Amino acid sequence: MTGCEPLEKKKQQQHTSVNGDVCSEAAVEDAFDHTYKEKEGPKPPRVMVWRNVILMTLLHIGAAYGLFLIPTASPSTLLWSLVCFLLSALGVTAGAHRLWSHRAYKASLPLRIFLALSNSMAFQNDIFEWARDHRVHHKYSETDADPHNAGRGFFFSHIGWLLVRKHPDVIEKGRKLELSDLLADKVVMFQRRHYKLSVLLMCFFIPMFVPWYFWGESLWVAYFIPALLRYTLVLNATWLVNSAAHMWGNRPYDRNINPRENRFVTFSAIGEGFHNYHHTFPYDYATSEYGCKLNLTTCFIDFMCFLGLAKDRKRVSREVVQSRIQRTGDGSHRSG
Ligand SMILES: [Zn+2]
Ligand SMILES: [Zn+2]
Q1: pLDDT of 310-321, one tens digit each?
Q2: Rounded to the nearest whole angstrom, what is the distance from the C-alpha of residue 208 to the centroid of ligand 1?
Q3: What is the model's pTM?
């Protein structure tokens, strides 16, 4: 635990505090802003980003072809694809999400380098941009200022938001966010400066090269399965958190918000489907009341703490969770 007590009340006070003595982690702007109001009048026109439409279409066609190639791949290649899936997923969940967007724990330099490399393997925009968009998502959830506003439907919150220009409010609110912690993180800034090269290496070259070099897999199969298919699966697993977990599932912690507890998403996104809990307590490193249960990312962070590579995991106390369930839950809470 840090000196910043992970109590809901104290956190809210810290968010509103303007004196300089709050812990830097507490300055993370991930609490919902009730004061924001969408602008009246007609919505701005939707502007397509055709480059992304074409790239995403080609990527998904390539991934579908990769599925057909699975029977021709060696078991080692399939195992390697799974390893790449888990590594890149961790780069998003343990890295861009829980560490850099929410500052839910602290990571040593070697771990931050590892997570930044894994994050480049996931190729979902650099950490700085990902974390900025994600803080805006929490702060202005389901409004015009939410980059993947689930109020605009499943398709928009899943992939559509990447195929059109951002709503002006997303850009405006993103610019006003407090991001000094990210700007001060040398690993984040280094990854941002060398992002294209790191993606080329981590997302495509290494997933392809390893099976070809070490066990003689064909470059064709190595390109379509561990690189393209694996990349597409990680993308969709992440997007499901924004789409499915904002639409289907229970709301045991806060019935007044859209995000839900979704078991399928929990499984596919290695622990990120406890989304009603997560939006209620965004600073909890486990993103769930249940710790490691169904939560590979939490297990990973715990293991890193065990190795001495991470520390200061923030957790919400049982009493705070219980009182929140009583106060705002939808009555569906089960213990365990
Ligand atoms: Zn969300
Ligand atoms: Zn989050």
Answers
A1: 999 999 999 999
A2: 32
A3: 0.91
